[in-house]
Amino acid sequence: AGLGEFRIRDLNDEINKLLREKGHWEYRIKELGGPDYARIGPKMLDHEGKEVPGNRGYKYFGAAKDLPGVRELFEKEPLPPPRKTRAELMKDIDAEYYGYRDEDDGILEPLEQEHEKKVIAEAVEKWKMEREARLARGEEEEEEDIYAVKDDESDEEGGKEREGEEGQQKFIAHVPVPSQQEIEEALVRRKKMELLQKYASETLMAQSEEAKTLLGL
Fold first, then answer.
1. Higher pLDDT residue, 153 or 99?
2. pLDDT tens for each residue of 121-134
3. How far apart are CA 28 and CA 36, in angstroms?
C-alpha cells in the first residue's frame, strides 16, 4: 500500500497482462490436444484464501483492492427488508386504525367544538364588516328572499304558481292532462289486448287484424 496509487495500478496492470498471456498459452495447449488448464487448473486465491476479486476478467491483487473506486465495485448492496404478508399487515388494522376511537380519550371533541366556535365567530365578524362597508357606501340592498319562487325556475318544473283572488295558489299546466274517463278507457283497451294475446290463437289474431283493416278500424 505504501507504493502509491499510480505504482499500484501499474503493477496490477502488468499482472493482468501476464494473466492474459497465460490464458492464450492455455488455449493453444488445448488446441494441440493437451489438457484444458482453464477448466481444471487451480483458482487464484489471495493470502486470505479467498478468490481474487475481479470485474469483467480484470483482477485486483493486494493493495489494488483498496484503491479509490475499486472497493465500491465489490460492495454488495444491502438486501431489501422482507415484505410483510397481507395477514401480517391485517393484524395491525382495527377500529382505532380507521379513527373510530379518536373521541374515546375526551380530548379531540372539545378541541373541535372550540375550533368550530372560532370559525363561526370569524365568519360572522367578516359578514358584519362587509355589511357595514356597504352601508357606508350606500350600497345596501334589500335582502333577497331565498324562499321566493321565480317565474323562470317554475317554468323549468313544467308550470307556474300564481296566487288567486282568495290568496290560494293555482297551478297552470303546460301539457294536456287526460281526464278520468280517458284513463279508464285506456286501461280497458290495455286489458283487452292482454286477454287477446293470452287466449287468442295466431290465426284468430290474423283474422281479427284483417277484419279491422277491411272495416277501416
1. 99
2. 999 999 999 888 88
3. 10
Burial class (CB in 10 A: 0-12, 13-18, 19+), 26: middle
Give pLDDT tens digits for 30-47: 899 988 877 776 677 666
**Hey, is 91 helix, strand or coil?**
coil
Inter-residue contact 158 to 174 (CB < 8 Å): yes
Locus of grid cell 503493477? 11
User: Which element (helix H / strand E) includes 129?
Assistant: helix 108-136
Q: Answer yes or no: are the C-beta atoms of 63 and 71 closer than 8 Å.
A: no
What SS3 state is found at 108?
A: helix
Contacts of 12 (CB under 8 A, 6+ apart): 59, 60, 61, 64
Chain position carrying cell 487448473: 41
Question: Which of the 8 DSSP states describes residue 158?
Answer: T
DSSP E strand stretches across 65-188: 159-163, 169-173
Please tell me the total number of residues recorded for the chain in this structure.
Answer: 217
